[in-house]
Design brief:
This protein is 76% helix and 0% strand. It is an all-alpha fold.
Length: 159
Amino acid sequence: LSGTEYLLGKAAAFWLVGMAEVLLVNLEAWLFFGLWFAGNPTPIILGSCLYIACGVLWGIFLGCNTKVQSAAIQAISFTAFLLSLQLSGFVYPVANIPIGIRWVSYLIPARYYIELTRDAYVRGVGWFGVWLQVLALTILTGLFFFLAWRKMQKMQVNS
């Protein structure tokens, strides 16, 4: 197997689990709370695919860069969970983040996914209003894929 095939195979399993969870959460939102998309659901579906891919690829990248599992778990806890909560606009608006560290929020996929879900459920603006968030998630997915792929290539043993 090449590094690319291995990376895609490893990512696909976790991506499918993540997408099943997205489907389940949206189904529960509809069944229990009557919450459904205000507009076209296509942007949130594509955005969810990209957001889950970002998380999976970032996790693989961090896992490849650590020597022990506990270090990988700690790195994920800090970068994926803590930074996502603090710098994505989930807890408080991005505009309230100090200007010196606000730039970090542009590298956090949750920032764009939160804007995308808010627009999909509340505003219903469709592609015209959310294309920038989908583009940002696409770029971040590509970046995280490249980082994970590059690390996998360096780890690959030539025989």
